[in-house]
Every structure is written in C-alpha cells, then in structure tokens.
Amino acid sequence: MIDTNTNNNASFLSKVSDYLIDNYSENLSELCIVFPNRRAGLFLKNLLADKLRKTFWSPKVFSIEDFMCEIANKKITENIRLLIELYAVHKNIEKENAKSFDEFIRWGQMLLNDFNEVDLYLVNANDLFGYLSESKAISLWNTDGKPLTAYQIKYLHLYKSLASYYKEFTNQLASKNIAYQGMVYRFVAENIENIDLTKKWHKIIFVGFNALTTSEEKIIKKLIQLEKAEILWDADKYYAENNMQEAGTLIRKNIKSIGTKDFNWLSDDFKNSIKEINIIGAVNGISQAKVAGNIIKEKFSTLVSDAKLSLKTALVLVDENLLLPVLYSLPPEVVQLNITMGFPLKNAPVYTFFDNIFAMHENAKRFNKPEFSDKQSFYFKDLIKLFAHPNILSLFNANEEHIVETIIARNKVFWQQEEILALIPENKSDIKENFKKLLSNWNVQPNISFECMANFIAMLQKSIISEKKQVETEEIDFKVDIELSYLFAFSKLINNLQCSLSSIADVVELKTLHSLFSQTVSLTKLPFYGEPLKGLQLMGLLETRTLDFDNLIILSVNEGLLPSGKTSNSLIPVDIKRQFNLATYNDHDSIYAYHFYRLLQRAKNVYLLYNTETDDFGKGERSRFINQIIDELPKYNSNIKISESIVSSLPEKQLIDYTISIKKNEFVYNMLKKMANNGMSPSAINAYRNCKLKFYFLYLLKLKETESVQEKIDAITLGNIIHEALHVLYKPYINRIIEKAHLEVMLKEAESIIKQAFLNAKFSIDEINFGKNHLIFKVAIKLISNFIHQEIKYIDDLKKDNNILTLMVLEKDMYKQINILVNKEENIIIKLKGKADRIDSIANTLRIIDYKTGYFDKKEVLIKDWEDLINKPFMDKSFQLLFYAYLAKDDYNNSIQSGIISFRNIKEGFHYLITPENTKNINNIDFNYFENVLQQILTEMFDKNIPFNPTEEIERCTYCPFAMICNRA
Hints:
With 969 residues, this protein is α/β, with parallel strands linked by helices. Helix content is 49%, strand content 14%.
C-alpha cells in the first residue's frame, strides 16, 4: 500500500481555492461559484478558510440546479404534483377515452422524463414530436395492405398527440407558476441575455463540469462571451488528449464548443503518479460489502479511526442498493461516517410493510365471503407476512410469544379484525390501536389508508427514539439515524400524496392508491447529508464529482452499472434522439467513464470490487473499464501496479440470532407428511438444503412472491418459452431415431412455434412486435436456431462413428419411493418425483438432459465430495441431475449419464455431471452414496426436534423473496 503522506498531488479543489485567492482575494464575496452538485461547496469554503487564515466573506456557492432556480426565480415542483398535472392534461385531451389514473401513471412518468429532456436540450417540441409521429406511422405501415390493429391505432394516436400534450402541459404549469427542471433551464437559456447578473455577482465561475446539456452549454457560453463568467475544467491528459478514450469525449466536445482560452489544469497525474490498483471479484453484493469492510479494517484502520484523517478515504457505491449491507459490514474502527448519496426508499423495510398491507386489503376484497359481507376477513398468509415483518417484530419483546406461530398453530384460513387484535398483548395498547386502523376497511374508505400509514410511522418513530435513549452507543447510532431518516422521508412522502390527491376526484380505488404509492416510492431517494468535513466518506459515484481521495474502494464495477448500459426509459427511439441532439446511451457511457477515470487520476490506493455472478441475460460482467485499465495503464506508467484476485466465499461466516423459528407442531408435521404422500421434488429438497425456513414458506405455507402485471419478458419467462417450444418441436420424434432431416424441419417451424409459445405466455402479437419484448423474441429464435444447428452437427459426428441418437421421452414424470426412520421409532414412506426435460440414448447409454437458458458455470456439475450435497451452496444443479438419474435408473437398463445443455454455451454441447470418482457414467455405487445423502436430508427434515430456521449463511438471502420477513434484507 502506498503511504498517503508521500507523493502528494494537490487536489482539484485545492487548486481551485488557490486560483480564487490569487485572482479574486479582494472580492471573494462578490463571486458566484457553481458546481455540478452541492457537496463540493463545503469543501471549497473549508479550503479557503484554511489558506486565508483570517475572517472573510465567503463567495456564494450553488449547485447548477440551485443556480438555475435562483436566477430564474422559480422552484422545481415535486414529481407527484407534476404527474397529477399531466393527468389533468391527459383527461382534457382524451375526453371520454382517458385512462384511469392507475393506467396513466404506467407511462405518464416516461412522458415527463421525455418532456424534461426536450427542454434541457432546447429541442423544438413540435418538430421532434411531429417527426416522431411520422416515423412511427411509417414503421407501422403494412406493405401487405392489412389494416392496423386496435393496439397499433392507440399506439399511433399517442405519438400524434405528444406535441399537444407538451404544449398544454407546459402552458398549464406556467399559469400556476410551477415547473420541472427542464422548464427552468430552458427559461434561463432563452432569456440569459436579458437577465442582469452583475447586480448580484462580480463574476460567475463554473467549476468541475464535464457533460453539459444544450441549455447549460448555451448559458455558460453566453456568460463567458459577455465576460461575466469563466469555467474551470478538471481532466487528465491520459483521456483528454486521446480521441480513443471515451472518458474525454464530452470534455473535448465542450472545450471546442465553448471556446475557452485556457484549459485550466489539464493534469498529467496518470503519467507521473504512483498507484496501486487492486481488482477483486466477489460472488454477490453482500460479499462485496463484507470485503470492503475487511479492507477498511486491515488497510485503513488507523486512518478511519481519526475523523480528520479519514477524509482521505472514500467508499463509493455504484449500486446504491448496497448501502445497508455496507453499513452493517463496517468495522468498529470507523469512528465517524459521512453518507452522501441517495438511498432508494423502495429498499427501506417499512415500504415492504406498507406494500404488504395494501396487498392484504386487496386480497381481503377478493376473498371476502358473502356471509362476512359486513366484516372484512384477512387471509392467514397475508397476516404471516405482516407479523413477521422486522418493523413489527421490533415493537414486541423477544420473550413474548411469536404471533406468527400462533396464527400457524390455530390452523385458521381467514381472520377478522377482532380476532387479529386479540393476538396483540394487552400491554401494547398503542400497537393495538394502530393495528385497529391498519385493519379497518380500506376498500370502503380508500382515502384513510394514507392517514393510517402516517399514524403507524409516527408510532415507529416514537419507539425507535425511545429505544435510542435507552441504548446510547456509537456503534449503532448511525444505523438508528438512518432508520429515522427514511421514516421521516416516508412521512413527508405520504403527506405530499395526501395533499396532491385532493385535486383528483376520481381516485377512489384502493389498487390505484397502492399503485400511486409504489410508483412514487420507486422514484424517490432519501438524500443523506452528513458532516462532509469529517469521517469516512460513503457516497454514490455522482457525489464524487470534483472531489479527490487518496484511498478509494469502489463497489459494483460491473457492466450494466458502470457504465449503466443501453436501457432507456423513453418514448423516443435512439436514432431520433441522435437526429435531434438529445443524449443517448453513448453519452451516458462517456459520463460514467469520465467520473470513473477522474476519480482514479489522483488516487493512490484503489480497490475495485465487482460481482462475479452474471444474470440470466448475461448482464453483470465486470466493467469494461476494469479491462481497459488492466490493458492500458501499466503500459502508460510503469509505476501503476495492478493486482487481481477472486474472493470465493465471504470473509467471515456471519451467525445471526433467529428472528423466526418454526417448530414442527402437529399442524406443521401433518403438512410435511401430506407433502411426502404427494411427492417431494428436487426443487423442494434443494430449497430445504439451502434454507429450512425458505422451504417452509415455499412448500408448506405455499407463500409466493407478489405477482404483478408482466409488461416485459423476464429471464424465467424466456426460459419457460424456450422449454415449451423445444417440447413442441421434438414431440413428433419421441421413440424415434433423430435424423438430420428432422432437425431441418424443426428449423423451418421454429419461429411460428416460438411465437405461439409467447402467446401461450399471455403476450399479445402487438406486445412481442415492439420494444424490448421484440428483441427477446428474436433472442429466443436465435437461441433455438443455434441449438438445432448444434444438434445437426452432433448427429453428423455420431454418424461418422456409426452411432445414432434415439429420443426416448420429453418431460416425463418419474416417481420413486424411499423409506426413512424418524426419531428411531417412526417409519415414513416418502414419494419422490421429478421431470427431466429430455431423455435420449446413444450406444446403449442413457442421457438425462436438463436445458439451461440462464447463467451456467461448469462447477455446478462437478461433485468433489458426496458431503457437499448436504448443504453446500451452488450444488443445486448437481443434486437435481443426480435426483433425476436416481428416479430413472429402475426404468432403464442402460448406463446413465446426466447433465446440462447450456444455451449460453451451446457449442460446448452436453456438460456431464462428474461424480467424486471423476466419472461421467453414474453407477450403483454412486446411487448408494446419493441415497445415503437423501436419507440424511429427509430424516432431518422430518425430525420433530429440528425447527425450520433461516440459513446461517446470509449471502444466500440476497435474492430470496422472503428476506424481509426474516429480517435479512
């Protein structure tokens, strides 16, 4: 590690402070300093105070957004108010064809985003939306003369109306003296010559900018031409002077456009500095958080234990969702912490609580029986989610009987309000009173929902503050403060919703309020503003602008996050954006590249952490920026040392006190025995292997993730579609030798069969012909085409060796029984069941094949030790393949192989399961070992003395739908 007290390069803000003192020391108070964000201003003022060492009047400091609002004398209106105003425009334009507010907000936010961008980039709205409408009309024109579908007509009508929406919306906002960001920026840009700024400030200095919108560029350029402003850039020769470096793309463009005389402080730090860059792969976000905590403890413990010295160190979260895992991974050496980033409110535990409450009331309306028409009844599964929530658990003492266990033990499906309230102890009168309101009939009076939520938040705040007074320790203070912060944010959000909704007469449905609440929360981030001049700095990437650190730990350096990729929440296609000089994903990539390289240019000790797991669509590989610096920086400067490593497991095993422990009473045990009679699948046993409590939730209580309307095709749906299409294609050839001619027929039929599979998955023709769904439809065609071509090659290779491939069965249900002895006294017969995607045979060898459309690692089919199948992570696929072989062995006399065909690695063909004996043929000895493993798992499962507890390995909880119930989110 490089000593941060040596090799000192002045920070960018230190250079800025020197420049201001050298050139404006006599009239600092008459300066206006404009930064990309608010944070840098405090650092600059502190530097000026340190260097001047006397009392002085500070310059006025703004973020660019605050500066625009200041000179325009306007405020930017909150998003929910803008949505409601836009909905009023929608109703006025569409009249009787207007959508409900619930339907409108699904695309209304996208429209707001586009209007904002149109104004930020000073685009003529009539020209853009007129051109867009014509473009869409041409794209929908059917050369075969077929009339447009109803969906296409509505689609085209929306695009034809966009110009009218924009004009009426902006006029309506102007008449009420409210505005969105783009409106304010356009107003300033169009009136900059008429706005007299000399009365306010002697000079305006723009500091540390990179990407400028057209409105910002026009304003800055005009002020510089009028000699009212100057701009101080921050860049390094490494990327600014190299046209191949995307990090310098926008800097080069803006310097050329604005035409500044001096490119202030074009540094050469990458060439002249000494750096150590450590690149570390970890299995998931939680692992990254723990690695970051370990780095701080092992490398920077001395620095972070000093509030002032720790300013040299920053933890940068590219993925803001990792904030809580990182906070809980910080070592005790961190004496002071400053968080400056936006925390997504949707990640706060209280959001899932309210989401569950809404769902519970909606289900109550759906399930309500006529005999209970005067009294609302609640479904027991909804109540379990409610009372198992960490916000509720925190209100009860640990020694009090768990309400969830009582609900389960009663074996009652529907509960009325008074029955639920009776479960709450009498000494918890405030909780009982709040639950009385939460359980009142929201379906009859939807508007009381927000009032009930506000009361509940107030109770939680009171409880947390009371507990904080009783337990005052530095270690938990920041966590408690964060919890209070997001509760306050929810209180404010709910109050804003109540005020805004008073203007909408037709919002009466509870599901509409639920949708609006969820939409608003998803768009809201809680800004943390700590004491920036002390402590370890924990921030998002955008918050690092203009700041420099000696020691950097950056998490989530993955494609799709850094840079963010090609996703776009816009109605305007990329090609049209380019024509009208709107920002595209290429510009966003350049912005991310600049922030990344600028952050590295003065740093000395850098740790880049990335997730080694990719998602099912291949998203999530380590960032190309990592590959670039590995390839380029050591050649550019031999004093830059780069190391790479992979952390295969968590730095330490974290044991957590069980929040929920489900005992196997008679009711639970009978559910288990019923499952034994109906059949135990490999998926169920794998769930148990990974987490006993998850098995209980999924397979005994049959709790599922909340279902929502699927507008886009996800990875699971794509996998199901491909499985269905392959089944239809191969079905005519069951019990037949597969010939090349058969496969060529399949190639011709593939597209129509895939299309039908999409239709069967409830996607309409129109839905799969547009947007991302259409791309995924094409992906499905390509995947199956590649698979069939690989099959043709395989058949040809077999033929050369005088072998043939015979298709035996597709998706065959297989069964077997196994006996276990529980507690040395009870003999239980368990039915095992499974369904393999395909079984075929080659030269008297049976192949059991499982198709895999998502991510696949060869290690998933490599068993090193039979004990690994008991509870080791990442052995699910091996267990499943052995399970299928175990079920099939009595029906076939063939030698058996079991394995994967991965659609992501189709040219690699069949990936055999490899046993500990390093063989691909599964023999009777292997089956005996596997049967022993099964016996051990199932005996434990049916042991009444072993409760259903959550897993001790918390990294398994990362993507679990029940993580919030278990207090693991």
